[in-house]
Design brief:
Blueprint lengths: L11 E6 L7 H13 L4 E6 L15 H14 L2
Parallel strand pairs: 1-2
Length: 78
């Protein structure tokens, strides 16, 4: 994805877990760097654990923090 970023790429909120066993957190970091280089608004939040695919599941250990981060992000792009 980082190879496809242009100045016209939409703003992005990247939310991930450091222990994602399926998709390396490095992928999100490289995408974030590409967004920054193209001056695209972006924010990245890395939670210490959670694995892959937790989405908005209330069972996710950092659900409350993630929802707060999501609200802040949405409010910042209005």
């Amino acid at each position: 994805n980082q190879l496809q970023v242009t100045p016209r790429t939409p703003p992005a909120l990247l939310i991930l877990a450091d222990d994602d066993f399926l998709v390396s957190p490095r992928n999100a970091a490289e995408y974030y760097i590409a967004l920054q280089k193209n001056k695209v608004k972006a924010s990245m939040h890395v939670y210490p654990s959670g694995g892959h695919g937790w989405g908005c599941g209330k069972w996710f250990k950092y659900h409350k923090e993630m929802m707060q981060d999501l609200k802040i992000w949405i409010d910042s792009i209005k």
